[in-house]
Specification:
- The chain is mainly alpha-helical.
- It has a domain of 183 residues.
- Helices cover 54% and strands 0% of the residues.
- It contains 24 helices and no strands.
Length: 541
């Protein structure tokens, strides 16, 4: 049986031997203290299971964070503390607390986020062996753990909307489909959505007639909207995701010959499905869709024609493209995904050099890029060119002798080196001005995220070029230090929740290493810049 504790020892929170009529602690006290066991029922002590749940205790116990047994009109904790006048109950909060706990338990649950398991799929568009020449095992990793619902998400739930809170899980629910499409369009910048104004309006309305927009794009919007909703609320419903994915894949693969007016939508849909499987780390499956898009570009003889977007103040955040911009945007998005996959996933390119050559020819140095899809492709292209230039370092006979740069600075390699540095600084200045302008304007937060990601890629390219001579040239070493600080500063502006909604290819290639600012780097090349260069600086100092 549990030993009795007198009221004095309980109030002072000291050990009591339960002696009768006066315990040992009260006997040794230098002044008289009442030692009685009347206030506490020693024969039937209160068990921990008898205490109320959090939120149902009296106001005094909640304020002092004490356990409360809920005894009316005064709980025993307040009796022992001699605060009977402060023992009050707020019964109006009990029903709302129960509803909130029920909704949180139904939605969050104890299960972690998991990717749905899909059956292997291969059709006449191309074989798996032809689309993935490298093993995806280095890229495959466990899914990132997702947190429980945030305080803001929990507080946004009201008792009257508890049933509607889980309606998004039902793919047959009309309201949930509308919410999925709205969420998909809101994050269309990160996913590379390129639609004209008429098609964008049809997507918002969920038009499945096919008169304006291909039905496959609507189903893909439902799939991506559900994925984004899961990330936003940190929940996992792989059964619903599998059902939506099968519907989207069937609708897309059954469209063999789209009308000419809908060809760009068809290619954009294949790019979105490729990104979806890249996010699930099914690299071979995603490259199947990208290969079909590459074959279609060759068969339809599509080109990136000059000029690109006219110079204006639009960043395509809340409205669609016109017909000419739609074709250029889709082709640039396909080329961007292909180049990003080559850099981050280390897979061979699927598109030939024709589109890349046309893109470089269509972008003279005096052109001010204002389309986000153009800015993103331009940043990745410059990083890709910097990597290629560094790989050709040994082809010019320098090898392991960087000290010859003083005597050979006029070689063709250095001509390309200085030209690339100038273009990178010009591109970085354009991005900085656009980022500042977007922060003062009415552009969405997603626009600023895309611009920041472009700046990170451009800074990474500059750092790699300067790092080549960091051991000999003090100015190159100082530039590397400055760029590393800029990358850490730019990365620290991203919240941990925002990183989930960045480009899916970047997230697949992400290396989760902590930076000096406590954040996670967004991609492998930014990790290389901060970690590798700072280690070399520390050794020199």
């Amino acid at each position: 049986m549990q030993r009795a504790i007198c009221s004095n020892c309980r109030r002072k929170k000291i050990r009591c031997d339960g002696g009768q009529p006066v315990c040992g602690a009260c006997t040794r006290s230098r002044k008289y203290v009442p030692c009685n066991y009347d206030a506490i029922d020693s024969e039937s002590p209160v068990q921990s299971s008898a205490f109320l749940r959090k939120g149902e205790a009296c106001t005094a116990c909640r304020r002092k964070k004490k356990k409360c047994d809920g005894h009316r009109p005064t709980c025993r904790t307040c009796i022992v503390a001699r605060k009977e006048d402060q023992c009050q109950y707020d019964d109006a909060l009990c029903p709302e607390t129960s509803l909130l706990e029920g909704a949180h338990g139904h939605v969050a649950g104890p299960q972690p986020y998991e990717f749905p398991s899909f059956p292997s799929h291969s059709d006449g568009g191309g074989s798996s062996s032809a689309t993935c020449t490298s093993s995806p095992s280095p890229i495959t990793s466990d899914a990132p753990p997702l947190d429980t619902l945030t305080d803001d998400a929990r507080c946004s739930i009201v008792p009257s909307d508890v049933l509607d809170f889980t309606a998004i899980f039902d793919p047959a629910n009309i309201a949930s489909k509308d919410a999925s499409r709205r969420l998909f369009i809101a994050h269309g910048l990160q996913l590379g959505l390129c639609l004209s104004n008429r098609k964008l309006d049809a997507l918002r309305a969920g038009d499945l007639s096919g008169a304006v927009l291909q039905p496959a794009m609507v189903h893909i919007a439902h799939l991506w909207g559900h994925v984004l909703w899961q990330l936003k609320h940190s929940v996992s419903r792989p059964d619903v995701e599998l059902r939506l994915c099968n519907i989207a894949v069937d609708a897309l693969t059954n469209t063999f010959q789209p009308p000419p007016s809908d060809t760009m939508t068809w290619l954009n849909a294949y790019a979105l499905m490729g990104l979806y499987f890249f996010r699930r780390r099914e690299i071979c499956r995603g490259r199947e869709f990208m290969l079909k898009a590459s074959n279609a570009v060759l068969e339809l003889n599509l080109h990136i024609s000059f000029p690109l977007f006219k110079e204006d103040t639009r960043l395509h955040s809340t409205h669609g493209f016109d017909d000419a911009e739609e074709q250029i945007g889709v082709l640039c998005q396909l080329l961007y995904v292909d180049k990003s996959s080559e850099l981050l996933l280390h897979v061979p390119p699927l598109f030939n050099s024709q589109l890349d050559t046309e893109f470089q020819a269509a972008c003279p140095p005096t052109l001010c890029w204002s389309g986000l899809v153009i800015l993103r492709l331009g940043s990745v292209s410059l990083l890709h060119e910097a990597r290629g230039l560094l790989r050709n370092w040994t082809d010019w006979g320098f090898g392991e002798m960087p000290h010859v740069f003083c005597a050979s600075h006029s070689s063709p390699w250095y001509t390309k080196y200085w030209s690339l540095l100038e273009r990178l600084h010009r591109h970085l200045g354009n991005l900085d001005s656009l980022l500042i302008r977007s922060s003062f304007g009415q552009e969405s937060h997603a626009v600023q995220q895309v611009l920041k990601l472009c700046i990170l890629v451009t800074l990474a390219a500059l750092a790699e070029l300067h790092h080549l001579f960091v051991s000999l040239n003090p100015e190159s070493r100082r530039r590397c230090t400055d760029i590393s600080v800029k990358i850490v500063s730019m990365t620290s502006t991203f919240e941990n929740e925002e990183i989930r909604f960045l480009d899916p290819v970047v997230l697949v290639g992400e290396s989760r290493l902590p930076t000096p600012s406590g954040k996670l780097m967004l991609s492998r090349y930014t990790v290389f810049v901060v970690r590798g260069h700072q280690d070399s600086f520390a050794r020199r100092e």
